From TrEMBL:
InterPro entries reported for this sequence: Gal_mutarotase_sf_dom (IPR011013), Glyco_hydro_31_N_dom (IPR025887)
PANTHER family noted in UniProt: ALPHA-GLUCOSIDASE, ALPHA-XYLOSIDASE 1-RELATED
One BP annotation, GO: carbohydrate metabolic process
Gene Ontology MF, one: hydrolase activity, hydrolyzing O-glycosyl compounds
Native source organism of the sequence: Coffea canephora (Robusta coffee)
Glycoside hydrolase family 31 N-terminal domain segment(s): 82-257
Pfam families associated with the record: Gal_mutarotas_2
The organism's taxonomic lineage, starting at the top: Eukaryota, Viridiplantae, Streptophyta, Embryophyta, Tracheophyta
Name of the protein in its database record: Glycoside hydrolase family 31 N-terminal domain-containing protein
Alphabetical keyword list: Signal
Length: 350
């Protein structure tokens, strides 16, 4: 009797606690604000000496949700190549953590004060009476109050990214706190999105509205679904059918902090817990072009010799495919292919 009662409690009590906790959790989620603040306004924008543009953003209405707002932000935009546009937003007064510049080599954003001084001297400040800044294929367009930006493609007239938030939208305009950054884009309903690695999803690499995409690098087994994995690639490719023609582009948010990305079908929202907003737009227009443009920026994978796959593939497995390959080929052929592969390691551009 005593025995069965205690086992009853040992079963029921945790169940009760779990239920209680999940109710409490739902409560916390439902009371959290869905919209934070009024965004920023763009109070100055000028051409920078390197051919980009720099702007100063000021917060519209301060609040303390997830910490105080950063009052002034620096905006830097540049068409870095014919098919790559960069949009960089950070604290205008203090340096913040970024993916190190020697790890992924790229230009430093133009310094705001220097650019303004240069622009005043060269009388370029009038330039920004217009609200578009374009290259051959991509156009950066912006609104000043509240500040929002859009990236448009010239050849098909599509808006690839649009950060404006209307009254009716369920997400905030730009939010920039020390430990909470939020920005969203509208998307057409029929866009197909792929990516946001590394994350396991039941549907594979195509993004599904409502699926959880958390990027927070942890070393967990990929057998678990809906989970974050070993590395982080906050990049997605967007494939659209425009008048029966396929157009692809990609959006990278170069930020190494933990983030949630919410894809809701007609919008996508980033919620990031630190760093800066450093966006790169790759214009494609084919998926292969996108991959080419992306890897020319972040670096191409080194070619691996076939015999080494087993060795580097899985750090925890003892039996390598190297040993299997060696078992399965004739000595002459093997020694040739190993020499070839060894050459390809030593010569990095092969
Ligand atoms: C961005 O969205 C806003 C609000 O829906 C819209 O008025 C504006 O035209 C869009 N911008 C572009 C470039 O598509």
């Amino acid at each position: 009797m005593l025995f069965s009662r205690s086992s009853f409690f040992s079963f029921i009590l945790p169940l009760f606690l779990v239920t209680l906790l999940s109710i409490a959790r739902v409560d916390v989620v439902s009371t959290a604000p869905t919209k934070i603040g009024q965004g920023y306004s763009l109070i100055s924008v000028e051409e920078s000496p390197d051919g980009g543009i720099v702007g100063l953003l000021q917060v519209k209405q301060k609040n303390n949700v997830y910490g105080p707002d950063i009052p002034y932000l620096q905006l830097y935009v540049k068409h870095e190549t014919e098919n790559r546009l960069r949009v960089h937003i950070t604290d205008a007064q203090k340096e913040r953590w970024e993916v190190p510049y020697d790890l992924i080599p790229r230009e430093k954003p133009a310094a705001l004060k220097k650019a303004i001084a240069w622009s005043r001297k060269n009388q370029n400040s009038v330039l920004m009476a217009s609200s578009e800044y374009e290259s051959n294929e991509l156009i950066f367009a912006f609104t000043t109050d509240p500040f929002s930006f859009a990236v448009k493609r010239k050849s098909d007239g599509q808006t690839l990214f649009n950060s404006s938030s209307d009254e009716s939208d369920p997400y905030s305009p730009l939010v920039f706190k020390d430990q909470y950054l939020e920005i969203s884009t509208k998307l057409p309903q029929d866009a197909s999105l792929y990516g946001l690695g590394e994350n396991t999803q039941p549907h594979g690499i195509k993004l599904y509205p409502g699926d959880p995409y958390t990027l927070f690098t942890t070393d967990v087994a990929a057998i678990n679904l809906n989970t974050d994995l070993y590395g982080s690639h906050p990049v997605y490719m967007d494939l659209r059918n425009v008048n029966r023609e396929a157009f692809a582009h990609a959006v990278l948010l170069l930020n190494s902090n933990g983030m949630d990305v919410f894809y809701a079908g007609t919008s996508l929202t980033y919620k990031v817990i630190g760093g800066v907003l450093d966006f790169y737009f790759f214009s494609g227009p084919t998926p292969l072009d996108v991959v080419d443009q992306y890897t020319s920026f972040i670096g191409r994978p080194a070619p691996m010799p076939y015999w080494a796959f087993g060795k580097f593939f899985k750090k925890k497995k003892k039996k390598t495919s190297e040993s299997r390959v060696l078992q399965n080929c004739s000595p002459v052929h093997c020694s040739e292919s190993i020499v070839q592969s060894a050459k390809s390691i030593i010569t990095p551009d092969l």
